[in-house]
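Example: Pentatricopeptide repeat superfamily protein, putative.
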Amino acid sequence: MNTTVAASKRSKLLLFRLLKPPPTSYLLHRHLCTEPNPEPLPAPPQDEESKIIQAVQLLLETPHEEWSSSQPLQSLLFSSPPLSPRFLLQITRRLPSSSEALNFFKHLQQNSPSQDAQFLSYPFQAVLEQAGREPDSATRLSQLYQDSKQWEIPLTVNAAVLLIRYFGRLEMVDESLLIFNELDPTLKNTHVRNVLIDVSLRDGRVDYALNVLDEMLQPLSEVPPNDVTGDIVFYGLVKRERKGRKLSEEEIIKLVLKFGEHSVFPRTIWLTQLITRLCRSGKINQAWNVLQELLRLRAPLEAAPFNAVLTGLGRSGDVERMNMLLVEMKESDIQPNGVTFGILINQLCKSRRVDEAMEVLNRMGEGTGSDDVSVEADIITYNTLIDGLCKVGRQEEGLRLMERMRCTKGLAPNTVTYNCLIDGFCKVGEIERGKELYDRMKEEGVSPNVITLNTLVDGMCRHGRTSSALEFFNDMQGKGLKGNAVTYTTLISAFCNVNNIDKAVDLFDQLLRSGCSADAIVYYSLISGLCQAGRMDDASNVLSKLKEAGFCPDVACYNVLISGFCKKNKIDKAYEILKEMEEAGMKVDNVTYNTLIAYFSKIGEFGVAHRVMKKMIGEGLVPTVATYGALIHAYCLNGNIKEAMKLFKNMSSISTIPPNTIIYNILIDSLCKNDEVQLALSMMDDMQAKGVKPNTTTYNAILKGLKEKNWLGDAFRLMDSMVEHACNPDYITMEILTEWLSAVGESEKLKSFVQGYKVSTPAA
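Written out as structure tokens, the predicted fold is:
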């Protein structure tokens, strides 16, 4: 009675299993056993389907020990003509577990009148499928594979694929390779090799995969690659994070061309990634050649890889070859898209060839003939052109282009459009026009962003409207548009420049309270401003905060601090900063040494200054004009004109650094003050002979000396020289000449000089 009830339940369960759709895991398993997107198996004929259902029902209702004695089952399974392997495959697949499937396989093995082992390959495949879906599948599959060799049951192609892929996913790749090596050579077709290559690449066994692939890529290969091979190989080699050695671009290019000989080409996405990698590595010629070879092989190319080459050429500013590539695309019937034209327009704008960029825009929508292409420009293209126009100072044309975009193309300006225009007007000082555009964008419902805010704040600060910038910033903050580190850096630098250090510090504190992510630049800006104001304790506090924020001071930051401490005569503090630089592994530069040389020269410690200069040279650093200038100026201030002139002569003869106008001015002024006016005049002749242009300060210094000597003739010649070199007199010049020439009755010459006429005469 119990047996009957159990059999009834099993029968109902069986019918339920037969009628419901296959489980997801079963469908996934079918995917693993065949090529991607396989042709679906035709449904069994109605009479065969009923036999399959009947056989499965009998197997489930009958204990497997009694299968051999069950006449209905035996006659169904071993009728004449014999059942097809496909029929047995379907029966085995529908059994509820791998153990029952294996029992059924053994029943067939023991009772089948056919001695052909191939007959049993298909139900054995189904056993493997069942085992692969169950827990501890690795152990079960390994045992079943060993059993197949012991029983001499050859694997089907799908069974081999299943085992290779399953072991690969279980990270038992050695077993996958063993199965392939032991497989009958006739079964090692393209599909099996594809799966093996995929498993090998995923495990990082790149060279093994390439060896398998090499046999497929031979010119007369019996197992040539197909599109699936290409997808597996190019995906496996181009993706960034993968195991195994990385192939060079040259190796990948060779593979692409070998595949091409078999009319297998990488998908556009993989090819574009390869071309992009080549271009970013500076190998634009190789990228160009790859496309040329693929064109020769008649590859179905699209615009994307050509766009990658165009981008690379654009980065190097090679507009000529960009045009050549566009011609190549046209001749090869490869249709450019909006990105293609956008890249060209962007590069032309960067090269300030805005008129040519406008011509490209005008041609984009004019394709009429069969050879022409009509591509509508998008908002990005228009924004690029508007920005290009603004960058070359043609803001009004940018405004007109925005109206054209709006009215004729139906494209509404966005935040980027307005930001470009606002930036253009702010750069040329038309702040009010920029604010008008800001008001207009709000009226049109275009939301300003932090770039809009930063653009207007920067424009106001650059043109001396720092208070207005702060007021605008506070207003935007109140309306919910928060600033970022760039905003605060701009404002802090601007207030430091107008010596309003307290406001700069307030802004810095506000930045830290706001939760805004401060960058190193904002710290550097405040440290520089505090050092210039002589507030070294505050500068040191900001330096501490900079370190607490996780930033490392750079050489420029340390130099500002050293200079600040030297100006405050706190040389011990300057040495502490120097020590900190050394401990941080940072090398001092010319600025550092020049600061120290200037300090020691200023306090009259010339011996120390020269030792610092000697150390500077020993470090491989070349003294600059500032180095010599600091020493020469200090010698002159200390009245030691002889040493100053000696250093000047050494600079002119030994050093490769020529003296500049500032150094000549220092010496000429000192010579005149020490009643060496004739020597000062010869210094000025030397200056002009060496091509160093005198400025108003030079003339003022020597005119003072000539006035003391009352050497009018030399003064007139100098006045003529100022006229000749368009060196305009300043109030000091006029003060010297007015007092002197009025006293000697030469006021007319002063009038002529002011009017730009020469004043010297042979008599004079």
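Residues 1-41 have pLDDT under 50 and may be disordered.
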